[in-house]
Amino acid sequence: MTTLPLQRAAATPRLSRKVGVAGVLALWLVGFLLLRGRDTLRLAEADVTPVHQSLNQLNDTVAANRNSNPLFLYFFNEIRLVVDELARGMQALISQPVAGRPLPIIGWLGVVALAAFGAWALGNLKVALLTAGGLLFLGFQGLWQESMDTLALTMTAVLLSLVVGIPLGIWVGLSRRGERLLTPVLDFMQTMPTFVYLAPLTLVFLIGPASATIATMVYAVPPVIRLTAHGIREVPHDTLEAARSMGSTRGQLLRQVQLPMAKRTMVIGVNQTIMAALSMVTIAALIDAPGLGQTVVKSLATLDVGSSFNAGLAIVVLAIVLDRVTTAASVRAERSRRNPSRLGHLRRLWLLLGAAATAVCVYLSYTYLWAAEFPSQLDLGAPIRRSADAVSTWVQTNLGSTTGVLKDVFTNVVLNPLQTLLTDSPWWLVAAAIVALAAIVGSARASVTSAICLGLLVATGVWSDAMVTLAATLVAAVVVLLLGLVVGVWMGRSTRVDRVVRPFLDAAQTMPAFVYLVPFLALFSTSRFTAIVAAVVFAAPVAIKIIGDGISGVSATTVEAATSAGSSRWQIITKVQLPMSLRTIALATNQGLIFVLSMIVVGGLVGAGALGYDVVQGFRQDRLFGKGLAAGLAVVLLGILLDRITQAAARRADVVTHAHS
Amino acid sequence: MLLRTHPVRRPPLVIAAAALTLTVGACGGAKVGSTSAGGGSSSNGAKCGQVDLAVNNWVGYEANAAVVAYVAEKRLGCTVSKKNLDEQVSWQGFGTGEVDVILENWGHEDLVKKYITEQKVAQDAGPTGNIGKIGWWVPPWMAKKYPDITNWKNLNKYADLFKTTESAGKGQLLDGDPGFVTNDAALVKNLDLNYKVVFSGSETALIQAFRQGEQQKKPVIGYFYSPQWFLAEVPLVNIQLPKYEKGCDADPAKVACDYPEYKLNKIVSTKLATSGSPAFGLIQKFAWTNEDQNLVAKYIAQDKMTPDEAAKKWVDANPDKVKSWL
């Protein structure tokens, strides 16, 4: 426990920090009142700056050089051929008819058997049953082929991501320089909205599976790189020293110590990569990628909530199955590392038998029609569609007026004042205030980064739009954090609650936002508020999960001690569990912000305007490509700005908690 | 045998699979590819070859695409490959040789200039017969309650009705998808209207706003266009803007007149036009009325038919029109 002087040392700067924050905000307000409306850098929706015009040329240059530039002839075209072949091969295997065959090579029975066997071999029996059940459910939804198309493309993208990502991750984990070089690139890949590069991508890799796969990879590869590197870096120093002293070479060290010990973290990376790839399904549909995304996008055009929900549910089922299998695989990986001799003869025998049975199923599904084409007797799709429609109609007709009032009050009391402060203050005042705040709550370094980001933001020419987006992002992030604290603490304190809540969180995270946009629009009409709600639905699960894990990670003995000392439940939460998971809460804030940012474009589709709208406009209109690109860059800059400040704040929180314990 | 000698926990999966093997091995069944349909061999298929048809994501377009694809496949034996693409990516596809046909083009002067005039990879294949009308619309209940609202001159009188949290104290004029052709911001400014253009960001949001506006008698005014399947569900009423005259929209910043009538047209790749494929003839001659398109769009959007079913129904009912295209 703490000694008194230390506590005082930690408390004093915290107090002065509060004063500092209040001072900066007060100065900002005064400046706003005096200078309102000056230097706001506003730009109308259809207007462009010279910077945007020159960015426009980028697209034309690519188009002009496609057939002559050696970079295209010998590099991009080769990549395209390989990726195309791979994706088409995967499709021929499970989803699309191949030459001479009206059906893919492996039918439903084979796919179910293979997947269940794989889940059993890598994970356990429970997830194998879940896998078989999940896949059969997709068939009964009437979406077998669509699901297989989605699975084929997702698997292609994930496999390629692993081939590229694991070696890069190892490099980043081993080399400081690699880390410094790659981290900004990964940040860029994860925050740049896909809409920005979708059109140029089809110029380089043409319309087809290659473009869809590569668009997916750009977003899906960073997690596996980051987590592989993280796993390798986390290997205890002592273990490495011991191995070195026994004369291991660097190669041996990597193969025999670092990789095996990082395996569990790496599997989590694979898991996150799969989830990221699945979240790209609807966007890839805009460049002709077949599958469930196509169903979602098409039904949106006719406001067919039922069909889009049915397809969205299929994506959720796929995601949950893949998530549970990879999680089980990581548990098995950990167990077998600790206790390598567990793979007994018996299990080997069972595996062999299972493989044989699977092979038979695959053969049957290749040969016989009944095992190849999913039987359509049991149709769950129709009732699911009908009930989703009914629920959505009921919500729209009965809740519309109440929710409308909620939206009005929230927008007028919270969002509009904040937005006005950000957009109507002179840009230099906003920038100065943010840099000062970064220095106070974060670090000197964070404030330098902020200054650079803000300078570049001005250069993008979309400052005013960026401020509108920033206001909505901050509001959404605060709501996400509050939800994270309330639900996270509730979940973290009880495994039963965790078990009930978690599937809903998974669904909220993987259900494509397009599915719930129609009812949301009915509840809150086209507005920034609707965009904020959509972002909260997507981002809150991450914050909740992280905080829940943090709370349940607080050691039971500490809680026990506090309980026996007579603390009430409220005291335990506020005095023990929350302070001890401060770092986790900071991490949750950070991730929540990043996830909110990734919904900016979706927000632009439901009335949030600003950067999200600019990005989509750039995708839809040739003339505005440059502005879309600039808006995309602005999103990246906002992302880096918020990430660096919250991370620096988290590190400071960490130092404070460590000083306490 | 093995199953019996090991009295251990038995993974049910393996057992189930093994049991399946036994039952199935005995009875067999129809084999893949032996009897079932699927062979797409048509007598005159060789002549036509493959046509890459871009399908843009609005229902009216899909109606055109459904009928043209159906006729091309069933009557000419073409292989039609439908590609679900956004407008701009479709045009780009002319350049990369991956798109042969766009079936409903709304103006797009910049793209026409780039791909037809400059790169010469595409050409105009004539009108579809559909007349496109862009403009401002209100739900029918409003036109009934406020009869003079349909003239732009009275809009300022009603601006207060359309105030929302998004419109900064003015009336909200709702705009749609970022891809739509729009002069609305300039119009509001040049006509001195006390309105603010709010960008809904998608056609879905726009339709939802109008649908709810009619159902719950909420005031809405916004951008819309015809032909559109939704007009069959809620017959929106068009607002009269100052009459369009040729050239009045030449300077985008100074526009103060209505949108022109768009003669929607078809665009084909130069590749297809010079290939001698009968599909080119079909696409050139394809033309129908707004009512025709609305009917097929209704089959798809409201009756939830697949595009192929919808096309078949219409083609069977209109043999003469189809004949004139061949």
Can you give a write-up of this model?
The complex is a heterodimer of chains A (661) and B (326). Chain A has 661 residues and is mainly α. Helix content of chain A is 83%, strand content 0%. The radius of gyration of chain A is 26 Å and the shape is globular. Residues 1-11 of chain A have low confidence and may be disordered. Chain B is α/β, with parallel strands linked by helices and 326 residues long. Chain B contains 16 helices and 9 strands. Chain B is globular and about 70 Å long. Chain B has helices spanning 2-5, 12-27, 45-48, 59-76, 87-96, 109-118, 140-145, 155-158, 184-190, 203-215, 230-233, 270-273, 278-285, 290-301, 307-317, 319-325, and strands at residues 50-55, 79-84, 101-105, 122-138, 171-175, 195-199, 222-226, 237-238, 261-269. At the A-B interface, helix 4, helix 5, helix 8, helix 13 and helix 15 of A face helix 2, helix 5, helix 6, strand 6 and helix 10 of B.
Radius of gyration of chain A: 26 Å
Measured as a percent range, the helix fraction of chain A is over 70%
Low-confidence stretches of chain B: 1-14, 22-26, 35-46
| CATH topology descriptor of the largest domain in chain B | D-Maltodextrin-Binding Protein, domain 2
